[in-house]
Amino acid sequence: MADYAPILAWIDAQQPRMESLVSRWAAINSGSCNIAGLDRMVQELTDAFAVLRQPITRIPLPPRQIIKADGRMAAEPLGVALSIKARPQLPRPVLLGIHFDTVYPADSTFQQARRIDPQTLCGPGVADAKGGLAVMLIALEALERSPYAGNIGWEVLLNPDEEIGSPGSAPLFLSAAQGKILGLLFEPALPDGSLVGTRKGSGNFVFVVRGKAAHAGRDFHAGRSAIVALSHIILALNKLNDRGPDITVNIGRIEGGGALNIVPDLAIARVNIRCRLPEHQGQIHRELDAIIKQAARTDGITVELHGEFHAPPRIFDEAHALWFKRAAQCSMELGIPLTWRDSGGACDGNRLSAAGLPTIDTLGPVGVGIHSSAEQISLPTLAQRAKLTALLLLKLAHGDLGKP
Ligand SMILES: [Zn+2]
């Protein structure tokens, strides 16, 4: 058994550094579509990750296709991803990843971190996932400072588009998963410190309904209301929720209509659909087709459906169970019991698991109120999680985990 205590003590000593990195990064708005802010984060991360002494590669992402409020497609620019590889010649490397975008747009009123009490920092992205970036950095730095670093290779992937479903970076994760032994993602842990086990799959869909405009007074019966047709679609979609908790359909946003004296010829619904099992995806596609066909039976109404499942469900198989147990063992050695439970949330971990890479995706700090203006991070969990990740990496490098 190696003596990891000095390395773990070094991590404890980095707690103030991690706290100041998180405050500093939280003050940079990096909403998924704020390219200027994302570029600033790329520069900050390039500077911070330079301590790992490995080449850092910038990968510009292709634009994503969106449906605008006028029903037309448009290209929206995405940011730049960062890739760092250490000792790629070694077999069975580890993939570490996390996003640096947040859900808070450039004009959000939530722009700065503030300390609520000695252990709690409130701010945009402090837990999701700027705290995770700090945890990953310190854990890797600890590994690199240890005598065991030369035994394993690793690859880091930092992406700027996770909060919008990783439209540009998903292919990077899929190719990075190839040949790896383990995936580690630094999404925030659940509020009680648990890891996430299974995850639902998630898809975003846009229904664009077109009808026929007419004067509401002179010619009302010649019009075909896209809003009324969309309403039928929405009610049919919502009915899919009646079958139980495995499939959920959230009508997140509707747009359409204009002046009240015009029969509206355009209405749009944006919908998020989640499901527990891979086979649910085909079932949902068939249900959506049937709903569209029914709506299009109305004379003068056409319906377009855009979108797809961007994250497949995560099944917790034997390989995942093995790695989660190893992580729990490391955590016990640090004096912190570790459990896991299921979540409806999706992340890049869904993709990695579906690509066959066992992935622990909630190694970031404990966060509460994520995706809201009450987002908080439990500061002591920064060092805790960095030690957990470092211990897992150190044992893997030293061969203390047994043959996977
Ligand atoms: Zn996240």
CATH superfamily of the largest domain: Zn peptidases
Number of domains: 2
Number of H/I helices: 10
CATH architecture of the largest domain: 3-Layer(aba) Sandwich
Mean of residue pLDDT? 96
N-to-C order of helices and strands: HHHEEEEEEEHEHEEEEHEEEHEHEHEEEH
- The CATH class of the largest domain, by name, is Alpha Beta
Q: Low-confidence parts, pLDDT < 50 over ≥5 residues? A: none
User: How widely separated are the two ends?
Assistant: 18 Å
Percent of residues in helices:
25-40%
Ligand catalogue? zinc ion
Could you please say which CATH topology of the largest domain applies here? Aminopeptidase
- Identify the overall geometry: elongated
Q: What is the number of beta strands?
A: 20
Give a short account of the largest sheet. Answer: 6 strands, mixed
Please give the structural blueprint.
Layout: H1 5-13, H2 15-26, H3 35-49, E1 56-60, E2 64-67, E3 73-76, E4 80-86, E5 94-99, E6 114-117, E7 120-122, H4 126-145, E8 154-159, H5 170-177, E9 182-185, E10 195-199, E11 201-210, E12 214-215, H6 226-239, E13 247-256, E14 262-263, E15 266-275, H7 278-296, E16 302-311, H8 318-333, E17 340-343, H9 348-354, E18 359-360, E19 367-368, E20 376-378, H10 380-398
Parallel strand pairs: 5-8, 5-9, 9-18, 10-17
Antiparallel strand pairs: 1-4, 2-3, 4-8, 6-7, 7-20, 11-15, 11-16, 12-14, 13-15, 19-20
Helix pairs in contact: 1-4, 2-4, 4-10, 6-7, 8-10
The protein binds zinc ion.
